[in-house]
């Protein structure tokens, strides 16, 4: 699987300009959406366990399909996608590999939304290359949700390195 991810990263580089780095050390881990919510909200380091427990106990709606955890360099994919069309499954892995490459390349960003924009663009290119519709149609993503997800609050800091690193700058 590592070799497949590396090949995907070479393709990502060809359409995004991100430099190819070493592939992640581990294959993606398939987990349920409750675990994805837990990871996405930083609960593995959370002091307020009650808030995290409430998040994890929420009903699963299938909206979270994957996460790249920059703290561990692991990619987590929603186990629900295992039954989906292989090209759509791979597009979700492509999306998370874009995030992996963004962090490996220390891409500056103001908020996660800026990183999401490129990931969705590359994912859409992958789907079209494999005879599918764009990511919005294949995953039933509303344009309004996409605007919200890829936007930044103007007051947010521009991170020249990931925010969990020692040094940050505007």
Structure, described:
With 170 residues, this protein is mainly alpha-helical. Helix content is 47%, strand content 7%. It is built from 7 helices and 3 strands; from the N terminus they run H-E-H-H-E-E-H-H-H-H. The chain has helices at 2-16, 33-40, 49-57, 86-104, 112-129, 135-138, 143-149; strands at residues 29-31, 66-69, 74-78. The protein has a 3-stranded mixed β-sheet. Helix 1 (2-16) crosses helix 4 and helix 4 (86-104) packs antiparallel against helix 5 (112-129). It starts with a helix and ends in a 21-residue tail after the last helix.
Task: Provide the fold topology.
Blueprint: H1 2-16, E1 29-31, H2 33-40, H3 49-57, E2 66-69, E3 74-78, H4 86-104, H5 112-129, H6 135-138, H7 143-149
Parallel strand pairs: 1-3
Antiparallel strand pairs: 2-3
List keywords for this structure.
170 residues; mainly alpha; 3-stranded mixed sheet; 7 helices; 3 strands
Number-wise, the strands total: 3
- Taken in chain order, the helices and strands follow as HEHHEEHHHH
Shape: globular
Write down the overall mean pLDDT.
83
Helical/strand content category: mainly alpha
Q: Considering DSSP H and I runs of 4 or more, what fraction of the residues is helical?
A: 40-55%
Main β-sheet description: 3 strands, mixed
Fraction in beta strands: 5-15%
Model regions low in confidence, pLDDT < 50 over at least 5 residues: 158-170
Cross-sheet strand order for the largest sheet: 1-3-2
The helix count comes to 7
Distance between the termini: 38 Å
Radius of gyration: 16 Å
């Amino acid at each position: 699987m590592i070799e497949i991810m590396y090949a995907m990263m070479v393709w990502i580089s060809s359409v995004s300009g991100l430099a190819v780095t070493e592939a992640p050390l581990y294959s993606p881990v398939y987990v349920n959406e409750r675990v994805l919510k837990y990871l996405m909200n930083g609960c593995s380091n959370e002091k307020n366990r009650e808030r995290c427990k409430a998040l994890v106990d929420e009903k699963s709606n299938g909206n979270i399909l994957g996460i790249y955890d920059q703290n561990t360099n692991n990619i987590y994919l929603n186990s629900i996608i295992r039954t989906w069309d292989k090209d759509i499954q791979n597009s979700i892995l492509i999306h998370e590999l874009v995030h992996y490459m963004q962090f490996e390349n220390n891409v500056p960003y103001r908020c996660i939304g800026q990183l999401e924009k490129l990931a969705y663009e590359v994912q859409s290119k992958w789907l079209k290359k494999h005879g599918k519709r764009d990511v919005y149609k294949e995953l039933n993503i509303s344009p309004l949700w996409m605007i919200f997800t890829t936007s930044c609050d103007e007051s947010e800091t521009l991170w020249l390195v990931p925010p969990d690193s020692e040094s940050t700058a505007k």
